[in-house]
Amino acid sequence: MSQLIFNGRYYRLFPPESFLGYAEEQLELDTSATAFLVVDVYGLGFSPDDEDDPHPYPSLSLEQSKEIEKRVVVDHIKPALDAARQAGLPIIYVNNSAPRIQINRSELGKIARRSDDLDWEAWGSEKDVDPREYVLGDSTALRFSKVISPQTTDYFIRKHAYSGFYETRLDSLLRNLGIKSLVCVGFALDMCLGYTLVDAINRNYQVVLLRDCTLAMEMPWELPERSFTKRMTLWMEYAVGHTVDSKDFIDACKRLS
């Protein structure tokens, strides 16, 4: 049995008069029971082919938002993803979609329209789907950049809610693979990735977040320090699981070989 061994960081909210705060413990993940989960990482902000990419941070300029997400994907997520493949971990992409379920009538669809001026069905339409099941269209929003596109051996799960577990085949896939631990990356930490992580622990999966491989939805006044991303990472560390820097994960993968 081969193991990925690295230190995971967590946060202690006790004693109430003075929190003990950050701590680390050594994690030993069985590679045969660990998967690499990639949530909503597609063409946002860096696609070489599509100039009209959707705007991941509506309150920021288009140039700012593209550069922020591009650096996270290219400098951190892509190297970690490559290392996970080299280590033989199953790679599972979990992506937004637009199934033909009248999602625009749902509460989530109404919120998307209200908060983001987004028509979910038009935004999530795809050209290579079964039109009996999914909305057929030519939206570029969910197309993968060549930088991060799935390989033929990877797994691909479409979702239509914040959580990758809600009414999808993700849990069945993980159980069939014998997965107990998830190493997770993606966007956004306060939305789709965050909800997916919570649903993962609700199903008793061990969750490890690569903390430099995600972003929360920063407001302009938070951006210089990325304060909201840091706060959501802290939430992750006291409420959901462990975090680790992508370099430490990559080094653990390299030690396997």
Please write the CATH class name of the largest domain: Alpha Beta
Distance between the termini: 13 Å
Unreliable stretches (pLDDT < 50, length at least 5) are: 50-59
Total domain count? 2
Mean pLDDT across every amino acid position: 92
User: How do the strands of the widest beta sheet line up side by side?
Assistant: 5-4-3-6-7-8
CATH homologous superfamily heading of the largest domain = Isochorismatase-like
Structural class: alpha/beta
Report the total helices.
Answer: 7
Structure characterization notes:
- It is built from 7 helices and 8 strands.
- By secondary structure, the chain is of the alpha/beta class.
- The chain has a 6-stranded parallel β-sheet with strand order 5-4-3-6-7-8.
- The radius of gyration is 18 Å and the shape is globular.
